[in-house]
Amino acid sequence: MVVRIGFVGLGIIAETHLAVLADMPQAELVFTADPHADRAPVEFRGRAVPHHATLADALAAHGPDAADLLVLATPTPTHADLAVEALTRTTARVLVEKPLVHEPAELDRLARLADQGVDLGRVAVAHHFAFSPEVRWAAGQIDGHPKWGPVTAVTVAFHDPYILLGQHAFASYVSSWMDSGVNQLSMLTRFVDLVALTARHEDARGASAWCTAAYEHRGETGTARLRTSWLTGASSKESVLTLDRGVEVWIDHTAMTGFAARGTDLLATFDSDTEPPRKIAHYRPLYETLLSGADDSVLRFETAATVTRLLHARPG
User: Fold this and answer.
1) What is the Cα–Cα distance from 313 to 197, expressed in whole angstroms?
2) What pLDDT, in 10s, does the model give residues 144-159?
3) Domain 129-274: which topology?
4) What is the pLDDT of residues 276-285, one digit of tens each?
5) Most Cβ neighbours (<10 Å): which of 44, 61, 103, 135?
6) Dmax over Cα atoms in the chain, in whole Å?
7) Domain locations in the chain?
């Protein structure tokens, strides 16, 4: 079944979205929109795609029912306005780049649309890290081995060399926590039910952060320790999940690999040659899920609301 797609926002991340969609036969790109005319894609599978300055212009030209899916890949502060416009002026499903909104108060604005008869089930959020191959492998291992017990502790560390960008890093990404925290939290929803952010400590003007979060898994509670930092010269992203029966699941997000071990015993491994490129490997299964119509809790509005509130929380 062909899925007609309208695409709003043609910045850097759009390149990944469009590369994935171009490789999916069921995806048909019907229009793009971006106020910067020079960002219009020249072609999609060898044909020119109608381009407009705004979503409103695109809907006026093509009609409110032209797209089955609207993708909003614009700067975060524009997400709420565009999501409201898409949800109230069309019947399309709406995929919003993460994070869903810029401020928690905007969640209430979207939630109130339900009072107007808008189905918030039409909203999906591109929590792409939760779709990475090593994360899906690890989740499959834990789900498939209930005898390993609940996840009792999690440690996640994301390092990016953004300090080398100087002030531009803060202007573009705000802080290491605001940049990476959304990926860490949304990734954790693949494994556990997040409850609350219990600590948040930032230093180096936000280039470094240490946070903790409470969660529930298989009837037990646990703590996730979350480290984000730009104080490095190279990228490195790793997670370790410890389970009640002595099993540890290690994930290397940079290399897209992982293994599970208990003491001296290696229980399972996941290897990758990093082909396709990492972000393509994230977004391809995300779109496969979305275009198939399958339900995945990681994509839901409710999950995005939980992640957004924890991301902005300031315990104590």
Assistant:
1) 6
2) 999 999 999 999 999 9
3) Dihydrodipicolinate Reductase; domain 2 (3.30.360)
4) 888 999 999 9
5) 135
6) 64
7) 3-126, 129-274
